[in-house]
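pipeline: protein-struct stage 2 | run 1193 | Exodeoxyribonuclease 7 small subunit
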Amino acid sequence: MSKKSVNAAADDLLSQPESFESAMAELEALVDGMDEQGLGLDQLVKDYKRGALLVKYCRDRLQQVREEVKQIEAGLASDAGGDPS
């Protein structure tokens, strides 16, 4: 594999997903592919690394959304005079 091909493969491995939903879909596809017999060790490791990146992306995104929801709820509570219900 040429140096350019190696760099392109590394870029693909590290590229950020477009959205939470696309990350989940890609993760599901990776898991399905890893469940199949016949993948070589190098491909399994590559898929595992990509999966780990996708899991981290999804966890980070969920945390961001949790924080946004807390801010929205805090704003609603302050608008309602402190009563969040």
